[in-house]
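Appendix B. Chain record.
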Amino acid sequence: MSDQEDRLLNEVAADEEQIVSTLVDELRDSFLGYLHGSIGFDELTFEVFDTLQAVHAVRSGHYTVEYLDDEDTVVEAMEELTQEPLREEERQPRRRKKRR
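Structure tokens predicted for this chain:
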């Protein structure tokens, strides 16, 4: 294996570890939310299952990382809440980083 291939594999492993660390942090927040009564058991159960699926996707290499800027995140959240598009103009495609 060349040095470049070795570096690439190390970068992929580091990216995957970061993704899993983020998932663990979010799951911790869900457990604490359940403990403090801010989310129900059904939501906690869904979050645990969803996190397990995400970890499996990372492990198997079947995942897509999407990078959104702050404006896209806010607009998408508002669109989801209102169930209506907020922008009339064509939206820019998201930048995606695919791993397979």
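Further analysis of this model is presented in Appendix C.
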